Automatic annotation (TrEMBL), chains A, B, C, D, E, F, G:
<dbReference type="InterPro" id="IPR020818">
    <property type="entry name" value="Chaperonin_GroES"/>
</dbReference>
<dbReference type="InterPro" id="IPR018369">
    <property type="entry name" value="Chaprnonin_Cpn10_CS"/>
</dbReference>
<dbReference type="Pfam" id="PF00166">
    <property type="entry name" value="Cpn10"/>
</dbReference>
<protein>
    <recommendedName>
        <fullName>Co-chaperonin GroES</fullName>
    </recommendedName>
</protein>
<comment type="similarity">
    <text>Belongs to the GroES chaperonin family.</text>
</comment>
<dbReference type="InterPro" id="IPR037124">
    <property type="entry name" value="Chaperonin_GroES_sf"/>
</dbReference>
<dbReference type="InterPro" id="IPR011032">
    <property type="entry name" value="GroES-like_sf"/>
</dbReference>
<keyword id="KW-0963">Cytoplasm</keyword>
<keyword id="KW-0143">Chaperone</keyword>
<comment type="subunit">
    <text>Heptamer of 7 subunits arranged in a ring. Interacts with the chaperonin GroEL.</text>
</comment>
<comment type="function">
    <text>Together with the chaperonin GroEL, plays an essential role in assisting protein folding. The GroEL-GroES system forms a nano-cage that allows encapsulation of the non-native substrate proteins and provides a physical environment optimized to promote and accelerate protein folding. GroES binds to the apical surface of the GroEL ring, thereby capping the opening of the GroEL channel.</text>
</comment>
Amino acid sequence: MNLKPLADRVIIKMVEAEETTKSGIILTGSAKEKPEVAEVIAVGPGGMVDGKEVVMTVKVGDKVITSKYSGTQVKVEGEEYTIVRQGDILATVE
Amino acid sequence: MNLKPLADRVIIKMVEAEETTKSGIILTGSAKEKPEVAEVIAVGPGGMVDGKEVVMTVKVGDKVITSKYSGTQVKVEGEEYTIVRQGDILATVE
Amino acid sequence: MNLKPLADRVIIKMVEAEETTKSGIILTGSAKEKPEVAEVIAVGPGGMVDGKEVVMTVKVGDKVITSKYSGTQVKVEGEEYTIVRQGDILATVE
Amino acid sequence: MNLKPLADRVIIKMVEAEETTKSGIILTGSAKEKPEVAEVIAVGPGGMVDGKEVVMTVKVGDKVITSKYSGTQVKVEGEEYTIVRQGDILATVE
Amino acid sequence: MNLKPLADRVIIKMVEAEETTKSGIILTGSAKEKPEVAEVIAVGPGGMVDGKEVVMTVKVGDKVITSKYSGTQVKVEGEEYTIVRQGDILATVE
Amino acid sequence: MNLKPLADRVIIKMVEAEETTKSGIILTGSAKEKPEVAEVIAVGPGGMVDGKEVVMTVKVGDKVITSKYSGTQVKVEGEEYTIVRQGDILATVE
Amino acid sequence: MNLKPLADRVIIKMVEAEETTKSGIILTGSAKEKPEVAEVIAVGPGGMVDGKEVVMTVKVGDKVITSKYSGTQVKVEGEEYTIVRQGDILATVE
């Protein structure tokens, strides 16, 4: 994929329904903040963001749960991605 | 459980009604901020969050009272969990 | 009581009507911010809260006037308590 | 009076109408921010408030003009008082 | 006049319509932020305000243009004054 | 002109329609944030503004594009000016 | 082009529909935050912005995805540009 996130942003790709079932995770959420399981596709460099040092702790390949509502969705070569801030990632799934 | 919270987040599991009765705690709350008793299942690493150093003070196994409204609910292998920030935990129950 | 407040939180218990009359304090307040007289039951450890050092200055047994609206009410063994931040306590009553 | 304000709070008592007339001050204000002349009855210790050092500059006995809207009113032994933050005091009247 | 402003506050007095015409200044403004020409009557000491050092740069006698909407109006001995923060003063008129 | 801006404020004068056409710039904007081309007439001294050091980078005579919505309009000796903060200036036009 | 952005602002130009198709990127977005692919035309100097040091990391010629909603559109010599803050740029496209 040819998208490189800036600053503390992370590009994630929603995990397909089949995979979600396999890992046994079913998500419930309000209309305002829809949590979803996703895979990390690309990670920004971190550094100074709004005057604060941000160290990136997620890695490409991590499965993550995010608060999707503040992300931006893009479609590249037929695949849908979401760009979120690392701070919007709640947990990793192992 | 296979969820690892990031930053200052804590994964909690609501304590069943029977347990709540046993410890003698009955909660009342407004529609906006529903307090609940929960057990801590996993604790994030803390560290720099929004440019501020956060030290995690809750431990796995702690019974806690939280302001549930800002949490995100997930269901893993049939169990429901909530992901909150440590700052949303009001007190521990001993 | 078996509740231990976290960070800058304080657990208080409303003073009964009889006591309120005894000390001669009658409170008036808007619907939005209802002041009440309460006794401090437990005090959190203070320390870093939202990146700021908080020193706890109220003590168990203090009679206090608070802005109740941001507190959370819990009922333990038949007694009702309120959990507030120290910053929501306006004054002590001697 | 037996109220001791915390942090940067100040307890004030509205000056009676007669006094207001005597000093020649007539106040006009919007419904949202009602300025009033009051006498300082008790002054909190100041110190760190929301992570910022506050030095108290008003003294007991000062006549002050405040933005009353953020204050909390209490009645002690038949007298009405208002608890405000020092930052809500606009000026002293000499 | 017997009003002493606190902190970064400044007491100003609207310049009469005649004077406004003499200096050739006619002001237009929205209902939300009504700019006005005024004379500085008293200047607070400055110092730490909300944790930030404020140096007062306006002087008694300065003619100033302000955003009046956040000020508080008082009437002392038949004269109307407005209390504003120095940060609400946009420019001086020479 | 006899207006001296304070702090990080800048006084600008809208460029006439003819000039706008000459430089080939046509502006479009939403109702909420109307961009306009203007000439810088006076520049404040900068310095500490809201506790942050501001260095003024625009100069008298610069042509600038601003977000006009937060400015205040004044009329001096028949000319209309706008007072904006330097941070509301988006770009210079050369 | 004769526009020089100030501070942390970046001038971008939306990439034509043909180009968008060629790179295989199709964008979806909510009404509130419309993401778009654009080319960087000019980059501000960075430096202290709102009291925080900003280092510019995008370069002229970069293809970027932005949250367009906070930008300001201008038309210069028949071409439409958008002025955004660097922080509103989510990712670069390679």
